[in-house]
């Protein structure tokens, strides 16, 4: 019943296992994949066959390696701001405000937009090989899909500052210690464990859970997301952004002035 180009959706026992599937780009978020995710969440909200959603990435290496750098490399400030604003509204906020619980099963790299996707989910578990980080400053950008807002909430402001400034990745073990992920399991066990948690949730009152999500999310709202989008857009007009993205595509280190 579900048909998406870049998502594999398997529904069983009221649990939807949603696999982001662009293995050739380590599941990077391009426009088509973002559209698929957005459409899936719209459909899932009113689908009585689905009580819990698990998000994961295809392959054994990557959850999501970020927004698709090749797709936005020649955007200007206006396009960059639009991209971030639309993405936040149509995908990331939609996930966070989903009526059905969303578990991110982080099976490898969760970088940039990939970590932002995991953070927009209601909670995260990870496999031992997972690596999580926000490397946008290496491209002359900042996180544009809510990362500046959600990372400090989850791990504290000082740790988030350091992670975003250094672009360092957290190992799964470290991510667990600081509360970025709730559990770490071997990769072969990851989906089973996610399904086990989902099954437990699916037996509780779905109307109560819907209200719990709404109440827990209610404490978050201020204008931080707007500031992030505006700064994100401004950076597209800077030289560093051109240098950062071109360097990535040319597989060399950027030379920031
Ligand atoms: N975008 C596009 N293509 C990508 C991306 C990406 N984010 N990540 C990996 N790929 C591609 C590579 O280009 C490569 O393609 P090809 O084979 O055609 O050269 C293929 O996937 C495999 O990747 P690598 O060969 O690089 O694999 P490695 O094992 O050597 O390295 C890494 C894995 C470390 C994950 C490396 O791929 C990497 O550093 N990727 C980029 C990570 C990154 O910087 N992510 C942040 C992107 S910016 C972002 O997410 C902004 C969020 C806010 C956006 C708001 C609106 C846009």
Can you tell me about this structure?
GO terms for molecular function: lyase activity. Keywords: Lyase. There is one protein chain. The model has no long low-confidence stretch (mean pLDDT 95). The chain has a 6-stranded mixed sheet, with helices on both faces. α1 links the parallel β2 and β3. By secondary structure, it is α/β, with parallel strands linked by helices. The longest helix has 20 residues, at 77-96. The protein has helices spanning 31-45, 69-72, 77-96, 113-120, 147-155, 157-166, 172-177, 190-202, 206-218, 224-235, 239-249, and strands spanning 7-12, 15-20, 52-57, 62-64, 102-106, 109-111, 123-127, 131-133, 170-171, 183-185. Octanoyl-coenzyme A is lined by residues 25-26, 28, 65-70, 72, 83-84, 87, 109, 111-113, 135-136, 139, 141, 143-145.
Keywords:
257 residues, six-stranded mixed sheet, 47% helix, binds octanoyl-coenzyme A
Write the layout of secondary structure elements.
Blueprint: E1 7-12, E2 15-20, H1 31-45, E3 52-57, E4 62-64, H2 69-72, H3 77-96, E5 102-106, E6 109-111, H4 113-120, E7 123-127, E8 131-133, H5 147-155, H6 157-166, E9 170-171, H7 172-177, E10 183-185, H8 190-202, H9 206-218, H10 224-235, H11 239-249
Parallel strand pairs: 2-3, 3-5, 4-6, 5-7, 6-8, 7-10
Antiparallel strand pairs: 1-2, 8-9
Helix pairs in contact: 1-3, 3-10, 4-5, 5-6
The chain binds octanoyl-coenzyme A.
